Amino acid sequence: MFGRTTLKELILLGVMLFGLCTVCFGQEESITITTYYPSPYGSYNELQTNRLYIGGPAQNTDQLWIERADVGDDWSEFRIGIGDNTGGDDSFVIGVVPCFTCGGNPEVWNPLFTVRNNGRVGIGTPDPQAALDMGGGGIRLGGVTRTSWPSGLGVYVGRTTAQYTGNMGGYTGANERCAAQYPGSHLCTASELLNSINQGINIDGGWAWYSTGTLMDTNTNRLVSDCSGWTQSGNFWGGHRTRGASLSPAWNWCDNPHPLMCCQ
Fold first, then answer.
1. Dihedrals φ, ψ of 146, to 5°?
2. Which long-range contacts does 222-226 make (Cβ < 8 Å, 24+ apart)?
3. Which domains does the chain have, with CATH numbers?
4. Which of 167, 173, 195, 263 is deepest in the core (most CB within 10 A)?
5. Strands 75-82 and 64-72
6. How big is the CA angle at 255 (ends 254 and 256), to the nearest 5 degrees?
7. Sheet order of strands, 91-96 included
8. DSSP states along 91-130
9. What pLDDT, on a 0 to 100 scale, did the predictor assign at position 176?
10. Residue 1, pLDDT above cutoff 80
11. What is the pLDDT of residue 262?
12. What is the mean pLDDT of the chain?
């Protein structure tokens, strides 16, 4: 038979339990949520962690996590880790699942916004093919919505150091002269110069040749055809060039040498 427990014994037992709990609380805290039935549920007012790993079937070694990073003084980042390489095979995706109670299929995943681990971003497409790939719907800038962009228009990159008359061996020869100084460029057209100005690109002032196509000079009633397609250097044929720092167009005889305005 056990004897009666005295008050001193109870106090001693309490001190021993308190000492054990002190050791417990001194250890690093962790939380483990296991899957069992019935699974845990409920609401938490606050759950803090520096990094939270997202688990799943052990089919690969990719780590998925979210964390808070203290970069500097009063400078924090909310980071999302997707995979362990930059090959573009892992993604951060925002999407929707159809409402099951509304008749939708909960197994169908509809991606809306995708960030690949190679830096490409897709809006409306799950497989972005460029730094920013718009799958459709257009983009709105300054109150204007665009769903497509002008094609084939380059922008001004500079003018040649060398000067040429209107005989440059045709359009191909004129383009080659630009490409020799600015790789990948060609002789500018009037539309490309206007496109450059509209985009705020600075264009150097001074006389220089550019292409306009076939025009009629109303003063001489002669066809101006880019010095006959940049094959003539006589004073019968004419071509267009910019007029000094004002960049206003001017007609000129093709035997006058000028730099070339190059676009890309």
1. -120, 135
2. 224/251, 226/166, 226/171
3. 51-137 (no CATH), 156-263 (3.10.100)
4. 263
5. antiparallel
6. 90
7. 91-96, 110-116, 121-123, 132-134
8. EEEEEE---TTTT--TT--EEEEEEETTS-EEES-SS--S
9. 96
10. no
11. 93
12. 76
21 vs 165: which has the higher pLDDT:
165
Question: Which tokens belong to 248?
Answer: 């206003």
Closest CA to 211 of 179, 244, 238: 238
- Reported as a pLDDT band with limits 50, 70 and 90, residue 242 is low
- Cβ neighbors of 76 (< 8 A, separation 6 or more) are 68, 69, 70
- Closest by CA to 257, choosing from 188, 206, 213, 221, is 206
Query: Which residue intervals of the chain are DSSP H helices?
Result: 7-26, 170-181, 190-198, 226-230
Q: The tokens of 62 are what? A: 């990719």
Strands 121-123 and 91-96 come out as: unpaired
